[in-house]
Design a protein that fits this description.
homohexamer, alpha/beta, two-stranded antiparallel sheet, 32% helix, 18% strand, Ureohydrolase_Mn_BS (chains A, B, C, D, E, F)
């Protein structure tokens, strides 16, 4: 299950060498070809791996070390440049295999659209799935200038698929009027601007349920995540996002998969955002893979 | 009233094509020739327009869309390079015409000195004018190394003009001792370090009064606005500045004009500060142009 | 024929306001979704326009001024993000219309694949068409990882279309062994490493023929064009490229269209490459539009 | 006592020209040769001096001006490139001389290891010395890959020297498990994540005691200090660090020396972090040199 | 004659501490307020000094060392921000004093307009003065948008002053048609595109004459000098400019003063252009101060 | 013989997976702790590997493909931070082992001092060894501020070791007077400024002899290699350096090892220099490993 590419040798710090023995699998989805604004997130996964060597293996937040968790870094899924449909199919197929093997999928984007096939695959395994979604943007469009599969549509598509009432969005501060109205009408749980406070209220209601979590780096304020495609002022701090990860870790939800998307290294001076993304992934692995 | 330059075609998103039908007019004042430290704010207005295409037209904060407000983007006022006095005169003349036409002036700097002729023109129309001023710096010098018209003097000059008691400064964290003392002696309302809390106390006292608002981007912390001429640690977040704009929108003051100055794109990696400036302008248009 | 978008107002310096009266039409093809390495050329056309305001209108090389040539800047062709096939079709349709109206097409990329539909459209009008191609790369692959329409295939596709003997490539210094062999076997005119010398030998043989010219910015050495997707050491200077443009201008070929592609502003510190691209376009307009 | 180098002419704003009359001495320790990750802090001291010219001389926080404090800027201590042991010895010797002359040492790094010889020298003068340490990292390793003198060991070495109970670390969010355990077992005062709150509790217990304070810039969040060797998300704001400096100034501790380390200009876009470092030093001088 | 400013301590490597004993004087003219395009050259002189510490003191081209030449670095002339006329007057006054003291003036810009008052002062001392001018731009406008003193006019003004036949421009590749025509009509020696070859032909004709030399960094190709206000493709290499300096050194002309202008550090990634400027100054000092 | 580090997985394109079967071995020497100016070359080797994925495997210059040469990428030699002597010893030991195994050593720096232990090891195997050295700097100092092992001394040390007459330096344009004199007196072959022409004269005289070749990236002009520690104007183009590599390939010398040093990625905007370094290594492998 490791992709055999010349350049996939780089791995996340302390990843386990053996797929079979691992409980969770980390993989990159280096696709950015439907973004309308600033491309570049295709280089996100490898950059996260590269800077992970600067991380400590121990989390003083969770009092746990990376070698306590067996996870395998499978490299990047090879995706056909400029062909979104085929790319999405290959991601979905890959995640189906992971799930069939009993692995917890941990994805790194790439643009946010890559989360859609993952969530679909996960939803096919877990009937009662809920989605927790951290983002600056609603991502609730039905289509973008006619294209159905776009970086602006993934949450809408998954909400249509599993029912809007099972989707919980946090930190949203940008979108079309119609998107906010649709969310309201459909009973989707969309929390504007705030993250940690509404999350703490929601988590008890999800106790015991399988939950997939998708984090768009731009939920962070541009001060904390300049290296992303679409920055939007007024976001949360990396401190609040860390606390949100820890709140989920301390709750009774059953994390069955997650991803972190939209790191775009070319806009990221001196790897500030990449280092943050890398630390977030360490905390998610240590907090959510029990 | 649109300036006829080859390059003035770029306009702020959703600006109205017709001057006569518009209630408010957006214009650039691309002057930076009196700054002592880092020039470059001359490119601020066009950069704000350029990145505005990445904005949503809808504000989830105010539940309002840009097409609900008729505003005209007039381009940049042509200013003679290296001639501050003539530049200030041309700005003042221009704003007088806007006011005579019943338009609300919305300016984009340029260095902070460009606000002075605008405020003078506005003060000639509104007897009871109050100034709300967000800034890291006092800008209260009488002169700067002998030059009376400098980026360090605009608030002093307008305070002398309309009376210090009618000037309210927020977020100030840098200046000469004499400037702070002068403000105190003259009864100017200068709030050090803090913005939102004192603003909430001041706004009820200004109810019904005509108010001109000038925002220097450096009131934001360097983390939130690196792309400005003179960064100064210890500032507020973009979240607090957005909340301040919304507090003014919700108050009973009569906003008769405003500007946002000191965006300097060359110091702004990946347009972080420009995107923030652009969003701030959207919120001011949606919140303040009733 | 000008695209009606909010942000298309920005135009190349001294472009003519009227389509009908213009002899040539400048347009952007902001597509970069099939590139395998570094995306970003979608922002090339608008950046070229933006920096064109720094250009003089007069060429001391050609002793001619921009106002001596009537050309219309039509803005960017709207292209569906992430959909290469549809994008190529829309470009081809657009250029057919230009040609039907008797205009000379002058394109700005975007990735090199955008040249393919343009060349096809031009070839359908001119039976005897020859292609002059400046590039670091062969671009002669049949497909790239299975995808037929890729940034690595445009010259192969057009060679297949009009016959390899009608294609003249200069400055080539990178490609697969098979590509060089194919060129040789097929009688394509592929000149390795050198540009000006072989061009001077070729031009007399093309006298009177209709010629389409496509310039990939990476034919320049990385020192002269860092702001492109795929830099490759050992290229020519901007001086040699200017001399090549002037050699074509002085020859007897009939330039029936041209493009300049692969400027990627995000890799271009301080607009060095953009300024060069902008000057090259001025020289092509002044030298080739008689 | 000023180092006689060609380039040491650049001095911190308003430093006093005379060593003998000065109460405190500012000096640079431009060493970065034991860092394992990103070098470059050797250029920190001169960059701080350079940008200090943009500072106001007056602190509105402390209502005091730089000319009220006589401090001498001695330039950078000349250190042998690539020789850590000799470098540390020269620093220690230098600080011994300062202390013998009755001066308060104020150091600028350089990597954090440079603080060790300074603290040792200070400890030899003050029996009852306590260390206040602001940092993202524990710096409590016994050695780093076998090397005892490393950027990861200075706090451990000084704790061993003066007793762990006399060391107070704030804001720590990164380290090996063993380091946190060692701190706990030894009774060191290590406060995780938080700074201002625990500091306010600690300060009264240190009243009257001689205190040396060492600030690693990376205690700040990467949003506030991108220009450092090892960024780590989840840190404090520059506002909180300023408040901490002011809390110490208002307390009854006896500041007998301090330093600020790990500014690395090459990772610092547009001097954001350098400007912050420079302001922090102004506040420390004004608040701590009575 | 050294300007007494806080930050003027930084000096060019191996400058002599004593004004009286020095044969030549180096000074900065940090003015950039009339430039129409990209400001920032005000920081040029100090950046040149800063990076000079990386230079060797010996020139293998000229077999001479800096300590063989007594030159004094006087720091930057204090200039009133935003006031070009007063700035030019102060420069002229300063250079008159230098000449009266028998010193050879060596200036660092700043925008090119700063050369005008220097050349005027020098012309008042030497009847038979010739100007050698290296530049991409003609700088021959009578005025720029009505302003007579602009970065586009200095060569015109000095040509009017000393007679166009005494001005020799090399490397010119940009300007208005009228400027080239004016030069031709007036008998000015304007060499387009080329530098070293025409220079070698001109030098013998100037043997024994007093010559002032002004170098605009943008005579270099953008590949060799990206860090300048107005880059223009098709320029010469740094190698050719070095050879030109050495050709002048080897000729019989009498260099009575010179300057190097238009280094703009903010556009200069990693100090590439600054290092080149610094080396050029070393070579001019070693080659031209006999 | 592959170093077992978490991050050493990244390998040069088309390197062979098996040490035993390989003829040549590529290894990194990530040391930069003795440089006096700008550190950062420790990250050179991994950056070269990373960008190698953008290379074609085929050289149109040499008509050869990478898979025709069996070479093993061993990763980076683990070196103790801040300890030059121990680092040099470990490099020497490592290369002795390579040579004992019959492998051709191909090193990537790191600072230039890393070449010294390699050259020593190679000299112990080949009695008649000659050194070919491409560099901007002499590197002939006996010591640097007292330190014998410094980035300024490696060529002197090896010249002392194998005899100055066996050392051939090309492109030298910077050094102390004493260094140039020493070279002359000792009969070392030092060619100032020029590379290709003197190389073509020297190569026939070395026919059949074992030759070690060391390339400092700064032999290139800063336009062609901005990403290095010490840039120096007036260097050669990447085209000339490629031609020099090909001249050696075509000559009768016996290349028994080589290295390329001083790539410093942090000063290298958009990987321009790294891409060039990577291509140079491909050409050396294809041209020199027969």
């Amino acid at each position: 299950m490791r992709f055999d590419e010349t350049y996939s040798g780089k791995v996340f710090i302390k990843s386990h060498p053996n797929y079979e023995e691992s409980k969770a699998v980390l993989y990159g989805m280096p696709m950015d070809w439907t973004v309308s604004y600033r491309p570049g997130s295709r280089f996100g996964p490898n950059k996260i791996r590269e800077v992970s060597i600067g991380l400590e293996e121990y989390s003083p937040y969770l009092d746990r070390e990376l070698e306590d968790v067996k996870f395998f870094d499978a490299g990047d899924i090879p995706l056909p440049f400029g062909n979104p449909e085929k790319s999405l199919m290959e991601i979905e197929t890959y995640v189906h295999t992971l799930l069939a093997d009993g692995k917890i999928p941990m994805g790194m984007g790439g643009e946010h659209l890559v989360s859609l096939p993952v969530m679909k695959a996960v939803a096919s395994k877990y009937d009662d799935l809920a989605i927790i979604h951290f983002d600056a943007h609603t991502d609730l469009r039905e289509n973008y200038e006619g294209e159905e599969y776009s970086h602006s549509t993934p949450i809408r598509k998954i909400a249509d698929h599993i029912g809007p009432k099972n989707v919980y969005s946090f930190g949203i501060r940008s979108g079309m009027k119609e998107e906010f109205e649709w969310a309201k009408e459909q009973g989707m749980h969309l929390y504007k601007f705030e993250v940690l406070e509404p999350l703490k209220q929601v988590l008890p209601t999800l106790e015991g349920r399988p939950v997939y979590i998708t984090i768009d780096m731009d939920v962070l304020d541009p001060a904390h995540a300049p290296g992303t495609g679409t920055v939007d002022a007024g976001g949360i701090t990396s401190r609040e996002l860390l606390a949100s990860i820890h709140a989920i870790a301390a709750s009774g939800v059953n994390v069955v998969g997650f991803d972190l998307v939209e790191l775009a290294p070319v806009y990221d001076h001196s790897d500030q955002t990449a280092n943050t993304a890398s630390k977030l992934i360490r905390e998610m692995i240590l907090g959510w893979i029990k």
